[in-house]
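Lab notebook: predicted structure, single chain.

Context: the supervisor wants predicted structures on file for every construct in the current expression panel, including those that have not yet been purified. This is the next one on the list. No modifications to the sequence; it matches the entry in the shared construct table.
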Amino acid sequence: MDAFSNTSLIIAGASGLIGMGILVFLSISMAKLRRRLRAVQDEAQEKVAEAQKRLETERREMKIAAKEERLAARVELENEFKGQRADLENTKRRLERREDSLEKHKAQIEAQAQQLDNQARQIAEKQAELEALINEQQVELERISSMSRAEAREYLMEKVEEEARRDCAQLIERHEREAQEQADRIAARIISQAIQRCAVDHTSETTVSVVALPSDDMKGRIIGREGRNIRAFEQLTGVDLIVDDTPEAVVISGFDPVRREVARIALERLIEDGRIHPGRIEEMVDKARRTTQERIREAGEQAAIETGVTGLHPEIIRLLGKLQFRTSFGQNVLRHSLEVSHLAGIMAAEIGARVAISRRAGLLHDLGKAVDFERDGPHALIGAEIARTHGEREEIQHCIAAHHDDQEIRSIEAALVQAADAISAARPGARRETLESYLKRLETLEDTAISFDGVEKVYAIQAGREVRVMVKPDRIDDLAAHRLAKKIAERIEGAMDYPGQIRVTVIRETRSVEYAK
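Prediction complete. Output recorded below exactly as produced.
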């Protein structure tokens, strides 16, 4: 019992000691926390105080800066106002000086107006005196000339009108002459350059072909027994075979150049082979046709290559090749087309027109001549229709249709093709003209010119390149002579077809004859 009590007392004492230790520890910890809290509070108060001081300092600095800015702006505005005030003062002074000057000018103008009024009164007085004098002179002139005032005015107007017409005609003639001379110089330069740069071979052909024979004995073999060989040959080829007294030669005659070429090739091969009978003739004619068609195609392709024209329809190439066997007044049409293509292209390059269009249209311009014996109508329109059918552009069709004025020319390329066609045809030696057509053309020229009133005599000279017109001087004056030359040229252009150009010269001769007795 006592031991347990002692133990309890010991435990209770120990617990009390422990509790007191804890209380002492807590007291010490609380004291430390209070000191730390006071230190933190003091530090926070110091920082707040510093922040308030910085804020006050910045507020004062901002106020000072704002005050300085206001002062600077005020100074700037005052300077600007001072400048504007100075400008206004200068402007005011200038306006005052100008007002003074205007006042002086006003005074001068008033003085001049007064002076002009005085002069106007003097002029009016003099004019009245002149009118009175003119009336007196007019009465005197009417008495002397036996003409009224209206008659004199009419006479004077006629004289003035005649002089004005004469001066106008001279002015028009001078300007036309200068324009024509300049145009001739430019055209001559372009055409000469085009001709010099274009060199195309030409051959003169007819409607017959001559085939040489190794001997006259071959003629009998060509004719055959009772003429069966020659009849078969003519029937298969569609040409006439003339076997006459010409030594060692026979003549193939026909208007179709392709048939004539087929017949020539077939006959030459028959002569070379030596076996001539109807069966062999038929075989050789078939081979000659194939050979001719191949040559036609090659000729068309070569023409396109030579002119640089691409994209042609095969049928157009074939028709171009056929032109190799077609002639116009002895001029080979294919070679003529090549020449026109080169000339048109060169002239287009010189004046800035479309070279490709001009060259292509020049090559195809006579395309209708390949089939004009198969269709009705002018070859220019036939060629334009062929071009349209085979996909050529509208400007190409127009150039083809307009090169002989079957359509009105609407483009510079069409005019160039027409000019190139005339140049190629008008070249000396390019074409032949029959005597009958030549004389008819000269006669038509003279009849056209002599049909005008006042014409006395007409002479066509220089192979129809110039027309000399002699007029009656009492009926045609100088002004009328100029107009007459233009009218004759216009009628010739509308009524005739001719290569190149025709010069119209009107001659008015005045002779004064007196006799000494």
